[in-house]
Q: What sequence folds into this?
């Protein structure tokens, strides 16, 4: 049973991630009054990409990407999907926070070796954006951990079953709002789509990826989407006992993200940081203070 | 038992023999001071056990005190005498090669006179005799400062002379007052009678004497001659002036204040004076770009520190002060001696001209470094135990004022460290002109190595000196036993 | 003659012998230095799990000077000798091209020996003496390179010296108060001392150790000193030397002052503990962002060292067994990965002919793959990527802080993101991106540099995957300082607020890596291309210019740099300037006109007489 | 008036000392300064003599048994003064010789212009 | 996706994926690019066939050269083409790449693009409408199906000739040969 969970949950995460990618394209097309590609299109792309003979820039180019995807896969073992959370007893939220570093870092090393300045610019923006949303995000997470007095994400989820969604319980409501405000940045959707920016820096870190590498990068993107949404649902929307309910919750969050993506233009990176460090951070900070004051 | 009078008589006699010896053999002249001081050193060492048991009192001419002039060879006096002979010996070895041009005969003569005067000051038990020896010390140092006969030497010498003469005049007036009041010049006798006179009467003579001796011992407002004289004298003489002359002045001040007057109300004032001297000396040194002037100002600072230590008048601090004094004699001597050859090689006294000396004269630079580290008080060199004792003694008094003063001492140590480290960096880590490597002559190197060994030995095993210093400090502080042993 | 005395004798004797041998033959000296440092490692390793005290010297005015060994000393001594050994090995090639190598080796060994003396010291006097020897020998080594190193050395020694003077004041106050300097005896006296005295002791020792540990606001000396010192020594400097401050803090707070007293010292809000914690937090936050501004590789690492010292400070000052373990473990971790980073940067500097400017390097990964791997592992440790030692130690620190003071945790966590940014800048600007034309003949890392890198990289990973190894020793320290024992297993730690299991994580990540790698192998074969075969809108890549390194994080830096002025550095420099002005002013009293001088004498007497007549104080 | 009479030597002595000191302080010709020092020395010598002086006293020699020691002037200050005079002469000679050298080097004796060593 | 295509998907997923996931890099030299935006936006929506524009040749599988090719742009075209991962397809748009079109007598345009890089399909017209582009793409699908879109293979096997042609008109090229050149073939 356990071993099945170990294999199953990353695959499920990949599947959902890829599905979300396809759905995103479809929904975006519909919003733009287009017919749109089939939902399976990302899968088709991945198959095509795997069969292409790409150029490799070196060992670190490969390893970084592998590291990135592997890191993201490991996170899925820690995140409860419904009740499926095979490694939740090996470390809590802190481990997840740190594992979340591996993804961007591996990508950064890999695309750094590709020696393309566009990639470097993209990575620089990616890290800066992460810096931007990490400030409010950490405040939110700390408020949560302080409020529930645990660092284990499964416990946070199970505690919410008694108290209701943390987003709508009193001391955490501000943190919830802040989390919502930074969610687009964490998912990397449009107002904050500064990293890839195909029109500007030739899709940034992905500029030198082709063939299998792009496939891996796409999967990594899909997983990042999954992790971002799943984390939000777990932390703020009470997770779920049932994988189906959980998936539905994720879907709602995902649609929210897509709608924002569809209607907003892109910010510059400094505008993005300025935004993230202003209102979301202030609200998150207030939330943390609120939690500290009421909690003790 | 050997007679301590020889400590004065032999160098004095040999000093006047120097011209005669010179006329006999020109080569021998240079070795006269070495021989005399070696003799003195051996004498001092041989006297140590006896003196530690009981101070030796010699009545000159058979008159018993208070009528006659007496020599008092206590641990303190012997410490100074030994220090003078040791430093004098090392410097005279150094001078063997360093002093080559100019009136060499006169140099050696005056040099020995200077040391005779210094020895006399520390051994005498009579106020006027002290004045006389003091004048011998001063006059010979005026002349030695002007030894090179260059602009700076003459200028500083005349300035030194004017101030020194004013100072000794004041001293003499003070002695006159004392004599007028007590009718005696014997220090022990005065010390015994001092309680019979109202304190306020004694103030004027005391302040006159302190001011007079203060000029020689470079206490703050009276020390303006020092940087000039020390910086323009030949380096060997700078070493002696810095290592011996001002210390002897300080000894005289301490003797007068502690033993003769012995009124403890004024000690705190001297502590303040010491700190002021320390701070001003260190800050002036901090702003110098001329190495010898820097060293001279640093001497002022050290004197301030020693004065502070002595003024706290506990056994610990005085021991610490004397330790620091010994360290200062060695370290400053070493600094001046090493700086002397570095200046000789580079031809300029600017610190910037010493850049890269570490490569050209490694041993001399090492000597400078050791001296500087020791003076700053870094372990394992001799400066650290002294500083440790001073600070611990001062803190042991447990008074807030003194604690603050200790803070200032530590602060000034930081300033001192700063300018010494600056020079060390210049020596080793800045690129100088690519001159060839050439060591100082063997005699100079011998002298420097001897001092280095002494400094390191004292730093590693301070106990070696501590017991002796401890009895020296009680000699200074215990007025009654002084009086008792002189007047029997 | 106990092991400690033999150790110190060997260490200090070796210093002299090294210098003397250097006069004879350089290869003999090198061999001897390596052997000596290996012998030291062995001697210390043999002392594992021993405790004891011996009086080794009474020559200092009869004050007994004591050496003692316990688990705290052992772990520090082990680190010192280990890093010392590696840095000597690293120096073999690095110093080949320099002059005055004998001096360098002797001083390097002297610094190591004196640090061992510090950690083995059983009384404060011994500690101070070795402390000062360390200070000045470090000064000589920092200034070694000349040029800008002069100013760096000067700043270091002045601040360090001020710190040691503060320490001297503290030591002597203790001596006068309790009549003993033996650490084991002071604690008894301290418990009955007044709280004012305790606070005084904490402040003076705090200044001394804070300067050495480069805690904000005493950090000003560190960046320049680390940057300008020779790289093997930078590794020692950043790795172990500044950790003497950590040692001192532990000693002062938990041994001298005592755990119970420390936790309750000071007022409710401005307690010593909270002030230290806030200082630690600021030390994390500010230097992390300043590091982002740096263009000099070693300066960047230096600022990062300050920031990491903040983590250690947080762990140690918080004062629970978990945080203490975290602090000490982070010290260990930092030693390993920061030495590694300084060595790799040193290797790059060595091979590129002294280039440290991040803007003019790039693309060295193909030329120096070893150095790249080392840097990558080091950087991962620095960031705290799971499976490196930095992760475990940071986890422990966060874990202990998280419920007590979430804001401090926030600062620490946020600092990690800053760490990611500057770490990536370091690794990107040196190794990634495109190779400048002038560096196309760079050779690979020499063997003597590879060896320490391999050992250190291995250690980073070993301690990351099996944190139980160091944590067992650290647990002993924690217990000996009066804390509760921790529940430690080989692969992690179990505490009431959560557990950590690195083996599981390792297995998961390994499985993930293998799976992804296999997945990559499913795809078509890839074609290796040259570094400059890039997409450049169809153009052939312009060499030397197709690199994005300058102002790597410009948008952020433009926002934050106005807030990052190093006010304390400015403040210290202002003080130095002021002292200069003041001194210059004061020396003007020596006017050169002899009449004035005589006037001073007359005024002195008149003032005295006036005072006496007016107030008659006497 | 009797105060003046009784202390005339002291007044004279201190007058001389003050004059000497003032000369040293105010004059900036080196020779005049040296003269000032000399005057000061003289004053001090006078002061010392005055300490031991008794009005109508006799020489401190026991020439005949009936001479009472109470009427003798104190001999010690006289001995002191002799020494002091010798020292003063030595200093004066040295000072003047230095003044000659100084003039050779600087071409002036104005102490305001001889300020190469300062600060 | 057509239901009756499922069988094909199972038979050869790679080929099908190549057909339905054409990531395009456009080379926009002239008027041809005017016709591209309508084809990828709401009116014609190329994305429903999996055709999307990408930013770099590394990610692309289809290279559309829209418009005339001058000497200067040829250099970039070759470079871009060589950086695309195999399998890759090339389609030229308009008359100019075929025979020079209205620039047939210009001293500075390329008259026959296929001399320098292999072209799998050419869509004639001046300019071709989006519908024509779609027709071209469907034609390319057929070619892919029949393994006839083998431009990249031809490029590899005849690289020496291509390189010679390129160097003949452009002079020395800044980049090294993509494939080893075996003398005269």
A:
């Amino acid at each position: 049973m356990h071993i099945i969970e170990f294999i199953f949950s990353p695959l499920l995460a990949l599947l959902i991630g890829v599905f979300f990618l396809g759905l995103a394209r479809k929904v975006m097309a519909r919003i733009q009054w287009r017919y749109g590609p089939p939902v399976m299109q990302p899968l088709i792309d991945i198959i095509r990409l795997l069969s292409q003979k790409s150029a490799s820039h070196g060992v670190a180019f490969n390893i970084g990407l592998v590291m990135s995807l592997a890191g993201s896969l490991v996170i899925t073992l820690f995140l409860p999907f419904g009740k499926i959370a095979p490694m939740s007893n090996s470390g809590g939220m802190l481990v997840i926070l740190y594992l979340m570093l591996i993804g961007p870092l591996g990508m950064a090393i890999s695309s750094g070796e590709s020696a393309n300045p566009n990639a470097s610019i993209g990575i620089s923006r990616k890290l800066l954006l992460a810096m931007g949303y990490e400030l409010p995000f950490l405040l939110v997470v700390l408020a949560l951990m302080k409020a529930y007095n645990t660092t284990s994400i499964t416990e946070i989820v199970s505690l919410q079953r008694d108290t209701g969604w943390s987003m709508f319980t009193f001391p955490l409501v501000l943190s919830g709002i802040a989390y919502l405000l930074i969610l687009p940045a964490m998912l990397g959707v449009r107002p904050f789509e500064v990293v890839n920016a195909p029109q500007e820096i030739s899709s940034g870190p992905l500029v030198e990826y082709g063939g299998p590498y792009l496939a891996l990068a796409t999967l990594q993107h899909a997983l990042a989407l999954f992790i971002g949404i799943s984390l939000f649902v777990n932390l703020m929307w009470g997770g779920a006992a049932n994988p189906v309910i959980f998936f539905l919750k994720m879907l709602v969050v995902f649609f929210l993200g897509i709608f924002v993506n569809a209607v907003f233009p892109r910010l510059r990176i400094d505008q993005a940081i300025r935004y993230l460090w202003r209102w979301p951070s202030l609200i998150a900070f207030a939330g943390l203070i609120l939690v500290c004051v009421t909690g003790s | 038992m050997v007679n301590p009078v020889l400590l004065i008589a032999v160098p004095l006699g040999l000093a006047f023999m120097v011209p005669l010896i010179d006329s006999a053999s020109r080569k021998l002249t240079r070795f006269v001071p070495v021989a005399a001081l070696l003799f003195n050193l051996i004498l001092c060492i041989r006297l140590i056990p006896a003196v530690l048991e009981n101070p030796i009192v010699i009545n000159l001419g058979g008159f018993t005190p208070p009528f006659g002039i007496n020599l008092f060879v206590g641990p303190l006096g012997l410490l100074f005498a030994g220090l003078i002979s040791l430093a004098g010996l090392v410097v005279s070895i150094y001078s063997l090669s360093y002093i080559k041009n100019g009136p060499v005969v006169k140099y050696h003569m005056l040099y020995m006179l200077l040391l005779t005067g210094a020895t006399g000051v520390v051994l005498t038990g009579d106020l006027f005799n002290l004045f006389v020896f003091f004048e011998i010390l001063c006059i010979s140092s005026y002349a030695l400062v002007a030894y090179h006969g260059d602009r700076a030497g003459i200028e500083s010498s005349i300035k030194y002379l004017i101030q020194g003469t004013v100072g000794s005049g004041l001293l003499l007036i003070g002695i006159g007052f004392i004599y007028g009041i007590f009718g005696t010049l014997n220090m022990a006798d005065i010390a015994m009678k001092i309680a019979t006179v109202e304190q306020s009467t004694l103030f004027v003579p005391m302040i006159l004497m302190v001011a007079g001796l203060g000029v020689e011992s470079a206490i703050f407002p009276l020390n303006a001659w020092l940087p000039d004289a020390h910086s323009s004298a030949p380096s060997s003489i700078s070493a002696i002036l810095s290592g011996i002359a001002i210390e002897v002045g300080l000894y005289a001040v301490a003797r007068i204040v502690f033993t003769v007057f012995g009124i403890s109300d004024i000690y705190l004032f001297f502590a303040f004076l010491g700190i002021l001297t320390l701070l001003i000396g260190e800050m002036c040194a901090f702003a110098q770009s001329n190495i010898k002037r820097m060293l001279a100002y640093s001497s002022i600072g050290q004197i301030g520190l020693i004065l502070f230590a002595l003024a706290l008048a506990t056994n610990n601090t005085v021991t610490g002060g004397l330790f620091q004094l010994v360290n200062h004699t060695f370290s400053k001597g070493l600094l001046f001696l090493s700086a002397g050859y570095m200046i000789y090689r580079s031809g300029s006294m600017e610190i910037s001209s010493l850049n890269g000396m570490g490569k050209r004269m490694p041993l001399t630079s090492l000597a400078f470094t050791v001296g500087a580290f020791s003076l700053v008080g870094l372990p394992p060199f001799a400066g650290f135990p002294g500083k440790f004792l001073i600070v611990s003694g001062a803190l042991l008094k447990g008074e807030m004022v003194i604690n603050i003063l200790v803070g200032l001492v530590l602060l000034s140590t930081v300033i001192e460290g700063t300018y010494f480290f600056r020079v060390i960096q210049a020596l080793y880590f800045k690129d100088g002109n690519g001159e060839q490597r050439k060591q100082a002559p063997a005699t100079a190197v011998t002298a420097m190595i001897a001092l280095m060994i002494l400094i390191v030995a004292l730093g590693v095993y301070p106990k070696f000196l501590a017991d002796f210093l401890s009895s020296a400090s009680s000699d200074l502080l215990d007025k009654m036993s002084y009086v008792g042993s002189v007047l029997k | 003659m106990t092991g400690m005395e033999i150790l110190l004798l060997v260490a200090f004797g070796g210093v002299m012998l090294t210098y003397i041998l250097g006069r004879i033959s350089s290869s003999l000296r090198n061999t001897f230095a390596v052997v000596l440092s290996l012998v030291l490692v062995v001697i210390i390793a043999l002392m594992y799990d021993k405790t004891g005290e011996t009086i080794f010297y009474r020559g200092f005015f009869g004050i007994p000077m004591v050496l003692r060994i316990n688990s705290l000393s052992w772990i520090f001594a082990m680190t010192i000798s280990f890093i010392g050994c590696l840095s000597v090995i690293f120096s073999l090639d690095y110093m080949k091209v320099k002059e005055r190598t004998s001096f360098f080796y002797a001083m390097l060994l002297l610094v190591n020996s004196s640090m061992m003396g510090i950690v083995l010291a059983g009384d404060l006097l011994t500690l101070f003496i070795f402390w000062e020897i360390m200070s000045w020998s470090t000064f000589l080594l920092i200034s070694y390179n000349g040029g800008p190193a002069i100013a760096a050395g000067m700043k270091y020694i002045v601040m360090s010296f001020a710190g040691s003077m503060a320490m001297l004041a503290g030591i002597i106050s203790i001596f006068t108060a309790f009549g003993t300097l033996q650490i084991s005896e002071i604690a008894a006296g301290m418990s009955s001392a007044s709280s004012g005295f305790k606070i005084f002791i904490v402040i003076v020792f705090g200044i001394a150790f804070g300067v050495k540990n480069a805690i904000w606001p005493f950090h000003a000396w560190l960046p320049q000193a680390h940057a300008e010192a020779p790289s093997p020594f930078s590794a020692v400097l950043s790795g172990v030397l500044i950790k003497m401050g950590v040692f001192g803090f532990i000693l002062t707070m938990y041994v001298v002052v005592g755990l119970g007293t420390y936790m309750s010292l000071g007022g409710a809000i401005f307690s010593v503990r909270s002030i230290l914690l806030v200082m630690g937090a600021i030390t994390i936050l500010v230097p992390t962002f300043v590091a982002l501004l740096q263009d000099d590789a070693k300066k960047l690492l230096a600022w990062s060292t300050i920031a990491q010292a903040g983590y250690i400070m947080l762990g140690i000052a918080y004062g629970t067994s978990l945080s203490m373990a975290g602090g000490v473990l982070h010290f260990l971790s930092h030693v390993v990965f920061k030495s590694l980073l300084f060595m790799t940067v040193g290797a790059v500097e060595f091979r590129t002919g002294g280039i440290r400017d991040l803007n003019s390097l790039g693309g060295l990964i193909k030329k120096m793959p070893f150095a790249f791997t080392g840097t990558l592992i080091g950087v991962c440790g620095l960031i705290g990527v799971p499976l490196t030692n930095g992760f475990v130690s940071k986890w422990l620190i966060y874990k202990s802080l998280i419920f007590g003071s979430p804001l401090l945790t926030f600062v620490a966590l946020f600092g990690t993101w800053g760490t990611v940014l500057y770490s990536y800048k370091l690794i990107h600007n040196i190794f990634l991106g495109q190779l400048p034309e002038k560096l196309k003949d760079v050779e690979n890392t020499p063997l003597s540099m590879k060896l320490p890198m391999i050992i250190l990289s291995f250690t980073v990973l070993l301690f990351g995957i099996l944190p139980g190894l160091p944590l067992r020793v650290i647990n002993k320290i924690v217990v000996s300082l009066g804390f509760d024992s921790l529940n430690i297993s080989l692969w992690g730690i179990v505490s009431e607020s959560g557990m950590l299991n690195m083996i599981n994580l390792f297995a998961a990540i390994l499985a993930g890596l293998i799976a992804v790698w296999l997945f990559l192998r499913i795809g078509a074969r890839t074609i290796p291309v040259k570094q400059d075969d890039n997409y450049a809108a169809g153009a052939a890549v312009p060499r030397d210019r197709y690199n994005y390194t300058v102002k790597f994080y410009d948008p952020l830096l433009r926002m934050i740099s106005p807030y990052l002025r190093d006010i304390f550095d400015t403040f210290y420099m202002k003080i130095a300037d002021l002292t200069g002005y003041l001194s210059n002013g004061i020396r003007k009293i020596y006017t050169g006109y002899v009449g004035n001088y005589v006037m001073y004498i007359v005024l002195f007497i008149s003032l005295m007489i006036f005072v006496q007549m007016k107030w008659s104080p006497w | 008036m009797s105060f003046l009479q009784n202390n005339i030597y002291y007044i004279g002595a201190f007058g001389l000392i003050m004059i000497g000191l003032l000369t040293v302080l105010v004059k900036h010709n080196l020779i005049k300064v040296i003269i000032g020092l000399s005057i000061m020395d003289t004053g001090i010598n006078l002061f010392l003599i005055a300490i031991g002086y008794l009005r109508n006293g006799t020489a401190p020699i026991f020439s005949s048994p009936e001479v009472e020691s109470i009427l003798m002037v104190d001999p010690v200050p006289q001995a002191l003064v002799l020494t002091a005079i010798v020292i003063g002469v030595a200093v004066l000679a040295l000072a003047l010789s230095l003044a000659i050298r100084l003039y050779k080097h600087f071409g002036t004796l104005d102490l305001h212009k001889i300020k190469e060593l300062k600060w | 996706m057509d239901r009756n295509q499922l069988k094909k998907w199972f038979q050869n997923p790679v080929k099908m994926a190549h057909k339905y996931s054409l990531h395009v890099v456009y080379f926009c030299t002239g008027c041809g690019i005017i016709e591209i935006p309508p084809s990828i936006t709401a009116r014609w929506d190329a994305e429903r066939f999996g055709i999307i524009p990408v930013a770099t040749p590394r990610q692309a599988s289809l290279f559309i050269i829209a418009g005339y090719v001058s000497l200067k742009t040829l250099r970039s075209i070759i470079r871009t083409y060589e950086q695309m991962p195999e399998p890759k397809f090339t389609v030229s748009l308009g008359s100019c790449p075929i025979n020079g079109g209205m620039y047939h007598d210009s001293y500075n345009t390329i008259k026959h693009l296929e001399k320098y890089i292999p072209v799998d399909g050419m869509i004639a017209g001046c300019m071709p409408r989006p519908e024509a582009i779609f027709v071209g793409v469907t034609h390319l699908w057929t070619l892919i199906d029949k393994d006839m879109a083998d431009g990249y293979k031809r490029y590899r096997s005849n690289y020496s000739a291509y390189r010679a042609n390129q160097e003949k008109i452009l002079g020395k090229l800044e980049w090294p040969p993509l494939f080893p050149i075996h003398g005269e073939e």
